[in-house]
Amino acid sequence: MNPSPASNDPTPFAGLTPGAVLDALEAVGFAGDGRMIALNSYENRVYRVHLEEGEPVVVKFYRPGRWSDEQIAEEHALLAELVEDEVPAVSPLPLAASAGRGWARPGIAASVLAGGCLARWQGFRFAVFPLRGGRAPELDQPDVLEWVGRFIARIHRVGARQRFTHRPTISVATLGDSARAAVLASGLLPPECERNWLAAVDAVLEGVRERFAQLSDLKVIRLHGDCHPGNVLWTSAGPHFVDFDDARNGPAVQDLWMLVSGSGDEASRSLERLLEGYESVRAFDRREIALIEALRGLRLIHYSGWIASRWDDPAFPAAFPDFGNSRYWNERTGELREQLVRLE
Question: Which single residue of 103, 119, 132, 198 has CA 20 to 30 Å from 240?
Answer without folding.
Answer: 119
